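As a warm-up, study this chain.
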Amino acid sequence: MSLIFIRTVIIFITLLCIMRLMGKRQIGEMQPYELVITLIIADLACIPMADPSIPLLYGLVAILAIYMMHQIVCLLDLKSSAMKRVLSGSPSIVLNKNGIDITQLKKNNLDVSDLVESLRGAGYFSLDAVDYALYEANGTFSALPKSDYESLQDSLPVIIIDEGKFEDKNVALCGKTRREFCDILKENGCADYKKALILTMDGNGKMYFQKKGEKFKIIQADVGGKRLW
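Now compare it with the structure written out below.
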């Protein structure tokens, strides 16, 4: 029992030193290769701690080897912009002044609802309140709002059509039917709702509409002169 305790203390001190040597980013926002290295080190540390039959030196050498690989990869990442893109990736602009860039979203295995959720998490509830939005190489989300963005989102928008599919619960919330929304789309150059990338509507009747492959439009729906929610 005491042997396992001593081995665990040694592994803990070694890991603490290694993580400190790896730098502050390693304990903050990690790049993909740093996450991989951290996971490997965690596994390597568990084996000699739990199994006294394995020489402690084996675990320490493996951890130090991973640390050396980390330093080499960091050096390549810092010295070569091409290698940096290979190792860490690059930011993906998923929303611009033309609207949602579905190609960049799919490239990152995301969809429109993921983007809307990220925007809400950043404090932006209307798609037209933001000029640019992007996912950084480490996965964090950033957005550049319009100067008057607060005035553009005084009511929470709900998704009516998400990549050609109706959200029937939200359709009912708006007090309209699918047919009424389809008629609105036809008036704005989209005869087939399945070609709609996104359609949202807030309580004031303001609609954000973007047809696949085209720039977004802001449409004002008739809500009878009252606020729906």
